[in-house]
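Data availability (excerpt). The following record was deposited with the supplementary files.
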Amino acid sequence: MTLWWFLPILAAWLLSLVLTAIVRHLALRHNLVDAPDGGRKLHSSALPFGGGVAIYLAFTIPSFAVLFSTNHFTSGAIKPLAFVGLLLGGLVLTLGGLLDDRYRLPAKKSIVFPVLAALIAVACGIGVTKLTNPFGSPFLLPAAISSIFTFCWLLATTYTTKLLDGLDGLATSIASIAALLIMVLSLSAKFWQPDVALLAAIAAAAMLGFLLWNWHPARIFLGEGGSTLLGFLVGVLAVISGGKVATALLVLGIPALDVVFVIIRRLARRQNPFTASDRDHLHYLLLDHGLSARQVVLFYVVFALIFGVTSLFLVSWQKLIILAILALVASIMAISLHRTN
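Predicted structure:
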């Protein structure tokens, strides 16, 4: 890490702080707000949407500045077209999310934006070309398989943070941890990808600037555009950093498994898993068992840090074991909380 890196990182953080204030003012002025319902929406008064706009701009502006003033992003492993896929896909999610927040689009329409963003990323060459084999040489993926895998991966990370966004600061905290860990891994001697590291650091700074506004009690929400943008950024960073999918999975593991469990339970009740509205998510169950909103967020943060930091020291087969342990822990928590709810 060189000294000049602090300029775009600091710029992303400051921009996020300032832009969030501006977006909040505009959202309140135009009545783009989320009203409490006494159920899943626990805030006491109407709060503005639109945090995703601030995060997207705070990430994009410093990234463009680095891209056009240095060769840092173009002399490494990141292909120039990948920036188009990342920024254009993010723009689709941000603007699509604003439409969703304004007009409360049904799930069958709102899914268009995550699908389009993932397709744009894949079309721009963002893809997992190989998967680590803990027992030997890596598995090389044919182009078609790589595209399908990457598309599914990006949809999975996008919807994980979307469905995680149920408590103040929760999705933003977990996504920023994922970005920071990708940054640290990219700076390690084993990988040494300074271009990816700086991009991940700028993303984390943009998220952390917004988090100061979004921490409980929140003064602004991510909105659909922000909640999906976070997962998309993490998913793309994991891919362009050489396929650090396991690292992202370890950070997003509890939320991702929670999504799987919720889908299974809804299907068992013959409900549409993508449109049903309930309090089956782990963060709601923890609230129902007496934890405060901040305690639940800190619970998730601790798990994300514990399992995510292990990726800095473990080899591939060890990461698989940790993932299995994570799945076991999540399963036990989900079953126990549901039985006592």
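Summary of structural features: The first helix runs from residue 6 to 29.
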